[in-house]
Amino acid sequence: MLGPGKADLLERIRDTGSIAGAGRAMAMSYKRAWSLVEELNAAFREPLVERARGGAGGGGARLTPAGAAVLAHYRKLEAITAEAGAAEIEAIRGLLSDMSSEK
Questions:
Q1: What are the start-end ranges of the H helices in the chain?
Q2: Domain formed by 4-95, architecture
Q3: Neighbouring C-beta atoms of residue 23, cutoff 10 Å
Q4: What is the mean pLDDT of residues 18-32?
Q5: Domain extents for the chain?
Q6: Helix (H) or strand (E) holding 51
Q7: Which run of H or E residues covers position 63?
Q8: Which Gene3D superfamilies match (predicted)?
Q9: 60-80: pLDDT as tens digits
Q10: pLDDT of 56 strictly over 90
Q11: Closest Cα partner for 85 from 93, 73, 74, 97?
Q12: What is the helix (H) or strand (E) element at residue 61, kind and residue range?
């Protein structure tokens, strides 16, 4: 329902005011970005993104209050998880091969 890519998309919609602009910032087509927005809107009780059609004033998109809340909760969960798992993350990094010579 929600993962790092969709959270990044919500964040970029918030920052750009545009689904197309958010998609461009993520090297994603408008069609793909809009499809992900539709998935998000369908998964939650309230829509996370509202879209305004184009016209003389131009179109755009914005996070709804529910969208802003979901994004804030997700980012907080990421921070809690990173802090709680810091030792395990370092252990995994220690097991990675050194790829610097392969680049």
A1: 4-16, 19-25, 30-43, 65-84, 86-95
A2: Orthogonal Bundle (1.10)
A3: 22
A4: 94
A5: 4-95
A6: strand 49-52
A7: strand 60-63
A8: Winged helix-like DNA-binding domain superfamily/Winged helix DNA-binding domain
A9: 899 999 999 999 999 999 999
A10: no
A11: 93
A12: strand 60-63
